[in-house]
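Researcher: I'm preparing a figure for a lab meeting and need a structural model of a single chain. I don't have an experimental structure, so a prediction will have to do for now. The sequence is pasted below. Please return the structure as tokens so I can convert it later.
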Amino acid sequence: MDRQRLLHARDVDYATSPVDFAQLVEEELELRDLAGDRGRLDFGGGNGLVGRLVTKVLLRRDFDLEIELVEDRLCPTVPSRLAYVRWIECLVGFARAVLDLPVSSIAGLDIGTGAYAVYAALLARRNPGWHIHASEADDRSHAHAAQCIARNRLQTQITLHKVTADEPFLACMHDLPGQLTFTMCNPPFYSSQNEMDELESRKSRGPRGKLQAASCELVTGGGEIGFTRRLIDESVRCRDGGGGAMWYTTLLGKSSSVVALVEVLKEVGVTSYGIADFQPGVTKRWILVWSFLPCRLPDALARASTTPALAASLPARASYALDLHNLSQGEGIACLTDFAQSITVPWLVHRQRLGKRRGRGETDDDDEDEGDRIVWMGIRRDTWSRAARRRGGFEDKSTTQADPIVLGIAIRVAAAGQAQLHRFICSDEALWLSFQGKLSHYLQQSHSQDTRQTSATPIVESVDAESLDMETLKMYLRVQSLY
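Model: Understood. Here is the structure written out token by token.
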């Protein structure tokens, strides 16, 4: 694939630039014949040929992917599949920044890839350095997926695994070294044929033509809840025994399934999870993600659902407005770094410019109020509680630097003095709550007693170099671009 086509494939976003079907009909002879004199496509009629041809055309036009259509297997709609793919790409972007993952190490698993291996093909086409594993239990779908992968010369990027319906979802990965970056799947929605028929009959607009698919693509024991529950149980076994994935994800068709599965995650001890939704057409879908890593996804990924029924199921926020009690930016930075010093936590202040060009004769001091500052703190253990002070706090820094960071904090302070607190690493919820309380109390006390130590001018760039080791500094430099 040449560079121009790759850049186009990366730029495609149907959420911001929906498919123009009138233009598509004009450009594609196959669709023009089906549109008739009025030039309009009827997606609900016949045997679903219009929908399958639109999928074929969009994959070819926008992603340089060629497929051969089959009538008796599910043919995916491209906009909905791309929305999931783009969300996965954002997830991987966060993982690369926090965990310092090279592109060559990114590996994903598409569980139940289907006859066209469309998720795997889209990910591979848009991300040439990634490797995607795809599993399929159905013989006919597996054979056709292999043809699609070969036709598009993606064999070096996609490994197709033939599995059985009864074996564990991750069994095909047991012999591979290392850990997957992510899993993804679009499980069958229904638990029985009767359930599917009943739900189809309830649709306000009626069923849009007969769905062309194999029974195994639509129905599974326990429906999408039962399917995902199996994946959750497997993820727990992988956590205890090693392997598995950094992040597990699934696409769900009912908000009630999301509510039920969040409760399952809490029952097995998962604290790092997220919910997102998207609606590229008339149907809304939800993404559920969970992990056993200490990383906390940004709210834009983990709390990306506007569904009212899911408000109580969303995870705790990773970002909060921080009250600086009317301090200026410089005073707020000074107060925050004083706080870090008071509890002997390593800190760093980074200046993020707004990009204004300076004129001749101007210096950094002339525009030092421009742009946000980010105070970064890497915390390896509790150094502020009464119990911590009794045991000596953070005095032995050389010992604690070998320990993992259990709480990674980024505090963005705007030029006007507003502040936003982000946590991107948190392996101890109690420690996080304790830190929040300590920081809020310190800021309130500093405001009421007016005892803060401030600089004459705002601190632009500074670092507690004595206690901030190189590993922590490198992590900050990777992560700061996210905030």
